[in-house]
Amino acid sequence: MPLLLLAWLLIAACSSADRTPNDSAATPVQNSLMIMAQEYSFDAPDTVPAGFTRVSLMNHGAESHHALLIRMDSGHVAGELLEHFQKSRVPPNWVAFYGGPSVSVQPLSENVVDLTPGNYVMICVIPAPDGTPHVAKGMVRPLTVVPGTVATAAPNADLTITLSDYAFTPSGPLSSGQHVIRVDNAGEQAHELIMIKLEPGRTIEEYVTWSRKPEGPRPGSPVGGTMAQSRGITNYVIADLTPGEYGFICFIPDTKDGKPHLAHGMIKQFAVQ
User: Is the pTM here over 0.90, yes or no?
Assistant: First the structure.
């Protein structure tokens, strides 16, 4: 599997499907998609209704996993997409990246995504110990989103983070506690939001260096976020933050020069009180 595709994404996934009951008229209704991940496969439903969907990623494996959701135009298949990335870092014009839960130190990671009807594929591109991306070992699964019959709504977000070429712009400071964070991509290129909880005294730049050559103690650990989102795609990240230093990173390579977006400034460290 080419490193171009590996560079394109990064980190963990698990989920299953059907809508959650609405316990209160004030609680927004969402469908649910549960994806179970292990080495090296996904266990997930074949179909899910369209609408706002709580995508839950449960990792039963020993390695980290994620699930990137990619929507393909009619007539295109997953194999065609993987072949494309062997030749080009620029995504084809017949796909849209819908994000999905990023890897987390917790076994469960959750995002809410507004899924539109169509054919999707979920993949994991984290490298195995032998350096081979998980997608090349079989972590590819199709998903069909069918028209929904129940009205759904977005969760009530308490913070918005806007992705752009090339910055993370929060609507306010992040505090400790439980949050629903809306993540919008307003950039021309696809972007991701990888959230890292740093060890005391370490920096987000040190984490990036360690991630390229993981030797010695980890400077930090992933605590969720979003996978690649195309322009105009929104994810809602379900997060429970504890006090400390954190960082945001976008590892996706630039379509013009191939450098990761963090090299263009898409890296940010901040404190959570």
Answer: no
**DSSP letter (8 states) at residue 85:** T
Nearest to 267 by CA among 201, 208, 180: 208
| pLDDT, tens digit, 9 for 90 and up, residues 120-130 | 999 998 888 88
A 10 A CB-CB count for 7 gives: 18
Taking the C-alpha atoms of residue 29 and residue 44, their distance in angstroms, rounded to an integer, is 21
CA–CA separation, 42 and 166 (whole Å)? 32
CA–CA gap between residue 183 and residue 229 (Å, rounded): 9
Which residues 6+ apart lie within 8 Å of 62 measured at CB?
39
Q: Is the peptide bond before 246 cis (omega within 30 degrees of 0)?
A: no
Show Cβ contacts of residue 206 under 8 Å, excluding neighbours closer than 6 positions. 219
Q: Which residues of 229-258 are buried (b: 16+ CB within 10 A; e: fewer)?
A: bbbebbbbbbbebeeebbbbbbbbbbeeee
Cα 12 to Cα 103: distance, rounded to the nearest angstrom: 4
pLDDT digit string, tens, across residues 214-226: 889 999 999 999 9
CB 195, CB 239: distance < 8 Å: yes
